[in-house]
Design a protein that fits this description.
Helices cover 47% and strands 15% of the residues. The protein is elongated and about 100 Å long. The strands form 3 sheets. The chain has a 4-stranded mixed sheet. It has a 4-stranded antiparallel sheet with strand order 5-4-8-9, with no helix packed on it. About 9% of the residues have low confidence. Helix 6 runs antiparallel to helix 7. By secondary structure, it is an alpha+beta fold. The N and C termini lie far apart (75 Å).
Length: 389
């Protein structure tokens, strides 16, 4: 009887501890407010959402700010996000903690998948170029390529067309050679090959369009991170002015980049967590079933209770394992990135922007006119357009 009481007391203590652990770990989740203004709502989330999601909200809000022409705000948000990313990438104690069996990956500080970190640097590079800071713009495009190297297979490493292409163009404008960069950009091109550089063009045009990729979890326990491809009705852009026009091809495809990111360390960790969860769950079922049977016999009750206790412990550990993949994503990214340059005299200009479908037909609902002011030479005028605007 003493042994039986000890076992029962031990089981009770485990269950009580588990109950307290479960209650302590469940907290109220942040519910974003919705005013219809993505910048206002994003700034509210940056301040009020859990700190682990701060970088994600900074990314989303920065791009929304770029839509509204709020360059200084977008730059500030991206600067803060990039400092956090570099500070946490690979060394953060929360990231290490998320590799444990009982830590949900979504509870770690968000730094994004490689394609998301690339885009943070890409947009910051655009903003630096708008400020006339070509050196820092080039550094951002180079950093973007470094983050794209976070893949398991060299086949998909550093293969953004625009990052190399822009690095070379800026190098040329800074009186250095951009030949090697252009060759790498050509080699990486899958959809369209960017034109040869013209260092004297003074109007620098960045554009993106379509709905970008999103993440979802797959597998028995949601342990596999998968990418759902984005989509776009448009395939290329035509920009015309009184002085002439250019076509902008889809040089980079974010859905492709997201889905070819290669294996991550976390993928293997989550797979191991899933195996642990399944094994301990099965072992717990077996121990409970055997224990219940043995408790029916007078001479095997103590053994049976011991197995019941072991089974409960195993089931608790199984329930505590968290192999779910992190599906938080930068959900206002585009699908295609493109770029072009023009030479225009200083002053006011009207740019007709037409989006073309896969057959080369104009999509009337997406056509618009942008009125821009071209800076006095020799300063570049940097423009950013998106179909979301």
């Amino acid at each position: 009887m003493t042994a039986r009481r000890s076992i029962l007391s031990g089981v009770l203590l485990i269950l009580l501890a588990w109950g307290q652990w479960g209650c302590a770990s469940s907290g109220k989740s942040y519910r974003p407010r919705w005013t219809g203004d993505a910048v206002v709502d994003g700034l509210h989330a940056i301040t009020n959402a859990p700190p682990k999601d701060r970088v994600l909200w900074q990314m989303k809000t920065a791009r929304a700010a770029m839509f509204k022409g709020k360059k200084a705000l977008a730059a500030e948000l991206l600067d803060d996000a990039l400092v956090s990313i570099e500070g946490r990438f690979g060394t953060d104690k929360e990231a290490r903690k998320s590799r444990r069996l009982f830590q949900d990956e979504s509870e770690k500080f968000f730094i994004g998948e490689p394609y998301e970190r690339v885009m943070a640097y890409y947009y910051r590079g655009i903003l630096y170029w708008k400020e006339g800071d070509l050196g820092n713009a080039r550094a951002c495009f180079r950093s973007a390529q470094v983050h794209d190297s976070d893949s398991e297979q060299n086949e998909y490493r550093n293969d953004y067309v625009l990052m190399d292409y822009l690095d070379g163009l800026i190098s040329l404008k800074l009186n250095a050679s951009g030949d090697s960069n252009y060759k790498r950009a050509q080699a990486s091109a899958r959809l369209a090959i960017p034109p040869p550089y013209n260092r004297d063009d003074n109007v620098i045009i960045f554009a993106d369009y379509g709905k970008g990729p999103t993440k979802f979890a797959a597998g028995e326990y949601g342990e596999r991170l998968h990418i759902r491809a984005g989509h776009s009705n448009a395939r290329e852009i035509r920009i015309t002015t009184a002085e002439g026009g250019i076509h902008l091809g889809p040089y980079d495809d974010l859905s492709y980049q997201a889905s070819t990111r290669g294996g991550r360390v976390m993928d293997h960790i989550l797979a191991n967590q899933a195996v642990f969860k399944s094994t301990t769950d099965t072992a717990g079922d077996a121990a409970l079933l055997s224990g219940i049977i043995l408790t029916q016999g007078r001479n095997t009750q103590d053994v049976g209770l011991g197995l019941v206790a072991a089974g409960l412990v195993s089931k608790i550990f199984s329930a505590a394992a968290s192999p779910q993949a992190d599906t938080r994503d930068w959900d206002n990214l585009p699908d295609y990135l493109t770029f072009g340059t023009m030479s225009l005299p200083p002053g006011n200009h009207a740019l007709s922007i037409e989006y073309l479908d896969g057959s080369g037909n104009v999509i009337p609902s997406m056509t618009r006119t942008e009125h821009v002011v071209v800076n006095p030479l020799p300063s570049d005028t940097v423009l950013y357009f998106s179909d979301t605007k």
